[in-house]
Design brief:
Layout: E1 3-8, H1 17-25, E2 34-38, H2 41-49, E3 54-59
Antiparallel strand pairs: 1-2, 1-3
Length: 60
């Protein structure tokens, strides 16, 4: 199964509470923090909600 590498590159200052919860659920929270997740529809939907705050790439 492939993986997605997600990295936060923008701050949460001024973001809505919903966006903050999604970032926390992905295991991020600070600029520069990186997490690896399994590639599935749930993770892709979360990334799509906060795509202006993170960068991501497919692995494998």
């Amino acid at each position: 199964m492939s993986e997605i590498v997600v990295k936060q590159h923008r701050s949460l200052i001024g973001q809505s509470e919903a966006n903050r919860k999604v970032v926390k659920a992905l295991g991020l929270g600070r600029i520069g923090r990186t997490k690896i997740h399994k590639d599935n529809n749930c993770i892709r939907g979360m990334i799509n909600k906060i795509k202006h705050l993170v960068t991501y790439e497919l692995k494998g």
